[in-house]
Design a protein that fits this description.
α4 crosses α7 and α11 runs parallel beside α13. This protein is mainly α. It is globular, with a radius of gyration of 19 Å. The protein folds into 2 domains: 84 residues, no CATH class; 139 residues. The longest helix is centred in the last third of the chain and has 30 residues. This is DUF6895 domain-containing protein. It comes from Streptomyces kronopolitis. Pfam families: DUF6895 (PF21836).
Length: 252
């Protein structure tokens, strides 16, 4: 939802709806940040409250009590030595950057430890590795805001191999992952913006706008269907906003 505001390509109705959803999430689901403050108090070394709060902080929301608790937690040695997969470490560092905090470790070193940062064999990209790639790019660029943060060698690697990955996951009809990879494409200096690929992606979307994870739309209990489609639907909104923004920039 924040990307829709930032990129400025959504219509007024969509922008208003995104704002309503963000307000609802902050006010009702997170109780004005109190939920995050309680979680940080109960689990002081969890990075989750910081990562969630960073997005709302960028939008002007504040919770001084949570910030005070985070300041105490971040002074511990454990905060910098918590074991996590490398792209999660990038996520924590990006959240700290969004909050204007001193980084708890070196960003370039964290990037170098990721799968993508080491430029491995491209044919080894299986499902979980593909998601590691997409989230590395998301955290590196702050969800597409700063594509220039992608190191040149990594950008060249992605430019070379991403088209094949896009085709593979399109052929497998894995729409959730394909959407994330389309965002990665939009973050590159020379995005492919393949019209035929986008047509295949769009054709998988239901008339109501929901996007299935894999193959066609699931059927059954609405609550269970929602659980299965809410993530790929958000990914579709993210991908379309980024691609539209890049296409408009290219025309301009």
């Amino acid at each position: 939802m924040q990307v829709l505001f930032r990129e400025g390509v959504a219509g007024s109705r969509q922008k208003a709806r995104a704002g309503q959803l963000l307000d609802f999430a902050w006010r009702e689901l997170l109780d004005g940040g109190n939920v995050l403050a309680r979680l940080q108090h109960d689990e002081p070394l969890s990075p989750v409250p910081l990562e969630i709060y960073a997005t709302f902080h960028e939008l002007g929301r504040r919770h001084p009590g949570l910030e005070e608790t985070l300041a105490v937690s971040r002074r511990t040695t454990t905060w910098t030595t918590l074991e996590m997969v490398p792209n999660r470490r990038l996520g924590v560092l990006n959240a700290e950057r969004k909050l204007g905090l001193a980084p708890s470790s070196d960003f370039d070193e964290a990037m170098a430890r990721t799968w993508l940062g080491q430029l491995p064999e491209p044919w080894t990209v299986q499902l979980h590795i593909a998601y590691d790639i997409t989230h590395t790019v998301f955290h590196l660029t702050n969800w597409g805001e700063a594509p220039d943060r992608i190191p040149p060698a990594v950008a060249e690697y992605l430019t070379r191999y991403l088209p094949a990955w896009l085709e593979d996951w399109a052929d497998l009809e894995h729409w959730d992952l394909l959407g994330e990879l389309l965002v990665v494409d939009a973050c590159l200096p020379r995005p492919a913006l393949d019209a035929e690929l986008w047509e295949r992606y769009a054709a998988a979307q239901s008339p109501g706008g929901a996007m299935p994870i894999h193959h066609g739309m699931p059927q059954g209990d609405p609550a269970q269907v929602f659980d299965q489609v809410h993530h790929p639907t958000l990914v579709a909104a993210f991908a379309s906003a980024m691609a539209t923004s890049r296409a408009m920039s290219a025309v301009g």
